[in-house]
Every structure is written in structure tokens, then in C-alpha cells.
Amino acid sequence: xxxxxxxxxxxxxxxxxxxxxxxxxxxxxxxxxxxxxxxxxxxxxxxxxxxxxxxxxxxxxxxxxxxxxxxxxxxxxxxxxxxxxxxxxxxxxxxxxxxxxxxxxxxxxxxxxxxxxxxxxxxxxxxxxxxxxxxxxxxxxxxxxxxxxxxxxxxxxxxxxxxxxxxxxxxxxxxx
Length: 176
What we know:
By secondary structure, this protein is α/β, with parallel strands linked by helices. It has a single domain, classed as Alpha-Beta Complex (Protein-Tyrosine Phosphatase, Chain A). 45% of the residues lie in helices and 12% in strands. The model has no long low-confidence stretch (mean pLDDT 91).
């Protein structure tokens, strides 16, 4: 069964509906958190949350330059993705490796924080990709699952890339 790609405007409607205040960090799936840069830099908070693994979706010297050295005095395993929050940035090459990192952490009974500057676009896109790749959710199901716990708003380029991922995963699952 082939599926039409979800129109971006429909996805935006889903993302913008019923918004309510969410904090700096939220557990959006068992053991999986989305947060902002301040959360990622707050080592006592990370320890209190039990975070064992961290994905920085805004890695690099021109973004949020924490890196593995920042966490050397903690038990946090670091994974950096040097992504710009621009609609023309291709985030898709990072979908599978990041999903694999998250999955491995969760299988080890770890807790993962995925963050970017505000915890809305880059980090949310990577979490949605994880839910689609490893949990077999459709893009709409993944958005609904995350939105139960956090307001997110991936940029239009990332939404388009997630739509393509949704279509390709659906085709893989049906063997086409």
C-alpha cells in the first residue's frame, strides 16, 4: 500500500494545534528527553534526571560547543551532530546514526537527552526520525507522541526531509 506524503501545511497544523507551555526539558518517550542548550549545560540537572547519553543536535564551534570534553567529569556518553537550523540544511544523513545511538542507549537502560538551542527544531527532528526508524511510527504518530509532552516545531526543510523518510520507511515495510 503506498501512502501520499503528508502535506507540510497539514503537519504544521498538527504541530501548532493545542500548544501549551512546556519546560526546558521534557521526557517525550520512555527514557528519551528533548531539551534546550541550558539543560545540556546543567550537569547537576542531567545527573538528577539520570541522563546517561546526550545528543547535541547543534554541535560545533559556531553552535553549542560543549562536546565530549564538557562531560568528561560525568558518566554521560556524547554524540554530536553539527547541524544548522536552516530549511536548506540536509539533516537526513544524521537520522539513522542518531537513531542507532539513541536505540543503543535505551537498550542499555540509559536515558537520553537530545538537545539543540531551544529544543524545538533540530533535536525534535532527530527524535521524530528515531521514533520512525526504530519504533516504526509514522511521522504523524511520532509528532503526536512527542506533542503529548512537548511543543516542537521543526523547520519546513526538516519537515520535508521527515516526510521523505516517512515515505521511504513505508515502502520498505511493504516491500516495495
